[in-house]
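User: I'm curious whether this sequence folds into something compact or stays loose and floppy. Could you predict its structure so I can see for myself?
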Amino acid sequence: MTDSHKYIFFGQNVGLIIHSSSKHNPFLYIQCIKRKIGGDWEKPSKGEGKVIKFSLEELVCIIQVLNHKIEYWNSKHCYNNVETDININWENKEFNRLWINISNYSKLLNYAQVEILKILLKHILYEKIEFSTSIIKRKGI
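Assistant: Here's the prediction. I'll summarize afterward.
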């Protein structure tokens, strides 16, 4: 078991980065980047792209879509007076391709990528429930 996780789903024009900085934090980040007109990718280190902080409750909703318990999930995040629309839904009734739309970033995941995302998010959720909700005092806190 590690303290952090990072996985990147790259496509031709959009990348989706799943990042959990610590199992002790009750949230994770999903970051979107895209290819610029000149061919270079947006650089998160320069503040480019879009980053959304997801709570444990929101992770549950996303996992519900991945497990076909609900058809889609929509949300709206507000940070620094900027609203971001989020939509996660299946492309069709076969449930083999998933759209993740965050603001003006759209990433289509194939079946294998969806399975990896499902396993990763479940693992992170269970890990965060165990470690971020513990009442045992950590060093330095």
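Summary: Residues 17 and 88 are 15 Å apart (CA to CA). DSSP finds two helices and eight strands in the chain.
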